[in-house]
Amino acid sequence: MYKENKKRVAAYARVSTDDEDQLHSLSAQRAFFSEYISKQEDWELVEVYYDEGITGTSTKKRDGFNKMIADCEKGKIDTILTKEVSRFARNTVDTLSFTRHLKELKINVIFMNDGIDTNDKDGELRLTIMASIAQEESRKTSERVKWGMRRQMEQGFVYGYSHLLGYRITDDKLEIIPEEAEIVRKIFHKYVFEGKGSSTISNELNAEGYTSARGAIFRQDSVVRILKNEKYCGDLVQWKRCLTDFLSKKVIWNDGADCQFLCH
To answer: What pLDDT is stored for residue 220 in this prediction?
Structure first.
């Protein structure tokens, strides 16, 4: 039970990748907040909410963040601590929307490294500036990643590979698996020279004891995907899908018109 004379304080921590160094950083953040809040005589620790391996440009998939907001709406929290604006969100609209919503609930957010408290008179002004900077940095990071992927694609590096019959990835490039390549040749021979359809081909392959790249039986749709895959003709087409923008991260098929950010 919380003591009535103590402020109920929560904290939020996030890292955007799940590699070992970042997870160590997350662990350190959680430990810091727990210790810091517990040392304040007039504060009571509610919980250190956190997300790992989650981007800050959207709050939709951040379970820890959303749980914290839900607990705020249930009246469980008076104040939220977070390391900096970029940890809270890298989307200016989300940052302002949530802090305003919290303010309506009489909950302030303290961004410790940025020296911002939403209770301050100029809190929202300074928060808007810092949130805009965080969003711009996120955009620049996306552009740098896209540029790097473009250069690697030009050198034949493969993105989006997943269990492709007849190929494996060696040093980020496609390499033929001879025994599986024979199955692929058989499929194309049956289709082109014997005039057989995908259903007949899949049935014959299963009857002959062949299995797919995943070790499963051949299905009609798996045969169709092989016949339509340009890689079996010696072409490597990438960036088939892309993101409309770096904030919403909505994935669409690349028609060359609305694609702004590389996917794979």
So the answer is: 93
Distance CA 193, CA 198 (A): 13
Q: Quick one: what percent of the chain has pLDDT higher than 70?
A: 78
Closest alpha carbon to 51 in 17, 98, 21, 20: 17
pLDDT beyond 70 at 222: yes
Distance separating alpha carbons of residues 56 and 14, to the nearest angstrom = 8
Q: How many other C-beta atoms are found inside a 10 Å radius of the C-beta of residue 20? A: 8
Distances (CA, A) of 191 to 163, 201, 226: 22, 8, 11
Residue 6 has pLDDT above 50, yes or no: yes
How do strand 251-253 and strand 261-262 relate by DSSP bridges? unpaired
What residues does 12 pair with on adjacent strands? 49, 82
Q: Would the pLDDT of 148 be above 50? A: yes
How far is 132 from 168, CA to CA, in rounded Å? 43
Dist. CA 59–CA 248, nearest whole Å: 10
Q: Exposure of 67 by Cβ count < 10 A (0-12 exposed, 13-18 middle, 19+ buried)?
A: middle
Number of continuous H segments (helices) and E segments (strands) in the chain: 8, 10
